[in-house]
Amino acid sequence: MLGLGLPRIASAQTNEITIFTWETYHDDPWIEEYTAATGVKVNVIRTGSVDEMYAQTRSGAIEADILYFDTGSVPRYVEAGLIAPFDATKTPNSSLISPSMDWVNRLTLNGRLWGIPYNWGTQPLMFNKDAVGDEPQTWAALWDPKYAGKVSMFDDAYVTFPMIAAYVKAADPFNLTDDEFEACADALRRLRPQVGTIARGFDDAQTIYAAGDAVIGYCQNIAIVNNLNGLGKNFGYSFPTEGTPTWIDCAILTPKGERQEVYDFINANLTREWQGRFITKSFNNGVLTEAEARAAGVPEDILLKTNVIDQATDGFWKKMIVLQPPEDIDRRLQMWNDFKAGTL
Predict the structure, then answer these.
(1) Helical H runs in 19-89?
(2) Which regions in the chain score pLDDT beneath 70?
(3) What is the number of structural domains in the chain?
């Protein structure tokens, strides 16, 4: 069992929390171990997209204590009254979070802090090296006729649109003009015949690529690339010249999550032990610096499969397009749904 430094609850009554998270973020054995160590039962619900998480939270279909979503989504949750301010003094392990993420500024709105990072990652261009050959350097590769029917996208308007906006060279991928929206619509119309399959989640994308149904596409998480290579495939990814959308997923409290046992769970997720295992098992970036990741025992070959080392290199974050609140999420979602239906 990990040395999480957690007190076992003495009461016969078991506390219970519910988290709304993602594939690879909170594996069942880790949750079972946490419950055994603390007596707190953790119910885990996993989502496949940012849009799905927001819709199910707003409708009340899922009532969680902790939501895991990116910094750019914070304003719409705040405006909808779905989340509560975060008290970072209750998570002392926040001192281990890499300062390169500038997380306090990214998570502060209206003078209040709204969460704390758990993981971050890039969404680059992924490709089958055997089928594609030289490393593509531009998003335009997705529109190349030679990949017709072999392109994969993932079903999430919120995180897909910044890539489309970068491809059409919008001045600001998150504040599109009407002309830029029309350029995006045209790009999506031309992309539709290229796309063979739209993936729902990491596992679905991995299955699609492993079966050969796609050879190039927009990557939801570089863990997919590493998993495919672990299966004996030959995949890679690149950071296109137009910029690479990047997310910082955070633990965010709902009003019902403002409880000590909820903060304790979040704090435990930030320990070197938890983060080291999380990075090692999933190839995710976690939140540690390179030095802290090494101190946590993350093997060198694993670090090289992540962006943990990259984050401190000169100019890295300038090449990333960190997700921000868009000008009109409903307009983007409608356009994306029309794209999927072939009616755009």
Answers:
(1) 28-38, 50-59, 74-79
(2) 1-14
(3) 2
